[in-house]
Amino acid sequence: MSSPAVLQGLRVLDLTRLLPGPVATLRLAELGADVLKIEAPGAGDDARVMMQSAADRVAGRPGAFYRIVNRGKRETRLDLKSESGRNVLKALARDADVLVESFRPGVMARLGLGYDTLRELNPKLVYCAITGYGSSGPFARRAGHDLNYVSYAGVLDQLASTDGTPVLPNFQIADLLGGALSAVTQILAALWHVSRGGEGRFLDVSMTHATYAHNVVAQIALANDDEEDQHAGHGLLNGGVPCYNLYRTLDGRWLAVGALELKFWETLCAAIDRPEWGTRHWSLGQAVGGTDAAALTRELAGVIASRTLKEWSTLLEPLDCCVSPVLTPAEAARHPLFTGATSEQPGAGKDAEARTAMQSERADMRAPLTGPQRQDKY
């Protein structure tokens, strides 16, 4: 889906690296903002070579990681350790609306480029600092990555198998939800304040604190003094009921059943020729994580295991009962939900077709990129 250029004319200075900050400024660019990515001389952003393919190394170009999260931005290099580099950044900050950085707390201040300095040059500037643990507090200067943030926030403990083993996700929850999304939300709120005649402000985005705040279902269990409900296989949303669970299919794939409401559950039970199961639902008194819920989960697992993912998708998706195939990233890239096509069956297709689609997707990602620009054109 394309986004309207509602932020056209907004000028953003992007001093961030790796994933959280670049994705935040990417979202602003997608909304029409003019984003200037500023990197240090030399190697620049570490994302240029992280997860870089052999073909990209041979071609001497940044890897897909860098290209995807920095598409649609202009680029320049500044040595902020030099007086000339600092002076250029100050000149850019005078005319900018937003500055986003992801250095450790205190780095920009030591360079003479902290918020207190830049606000004197531009009182309307919205200055956003994305850090792991916040700009103050006992952990402020500690290093960390997504895995550390979600572990401290109590989120990783929630991403666990039924035996309690945490699952290492390939989706960076703290970086993207706690960092990028939180930054964009706060930036837009601050810009609204500025547009109403207010001054700019310093935004302190802690990825760990924001992730902790979003761990809502676990907080509900704590408020209910129900520690057991937090454990995998015992809560309403983590495997404690058959109507909201994952099931392996005949071909070794997985089906996601999200029939949380009774009407969806009844539709599903009728479709699989088990209408009598419709009364065995949490809303009708079935104990979440209880004996009947566990037994029915096993029974439903036996039914789902009798057919392939394609067969279940063909039968259940048209019924609007909140059942979906667990797609691979390659399958998701070619799914009609994201391509706009209508002829392909979800979960179906050959691996070669999926690879071709992913290649096309990568080509689309490259298309909007702009080359390095001189800072005096900002």
TrEMBL record:
Gene3D superfamilies per record: Crotonobetainyl-coa:carnitine coa-transferase, domain 1 (3.40.50.10540), formyl-coa transferase, domain 3 (3.30.1540.10)
InterPro entries named among the record's database cross-references: CoA-transferase_III, CoA-Trfase_fam_III, CoA-Trfase_III_dom3_sf, CoA-Trfase_III_dom_1_sf
Superkingdom of this protein's organism: Bacteria
Disordered: region residues: 339-378
Pfam families hit by this protein: CoA_transf_3
SUPFAM superfamilies, per database record: CoA-transferase family III (CaiB/BaiF) (SSF89796)
Name listed for the protein in its UniProt record: CaiB/BaiF CoA-transferase family protein
Organism in which the protein naturally occurs: Paraburkholderia kururiensis
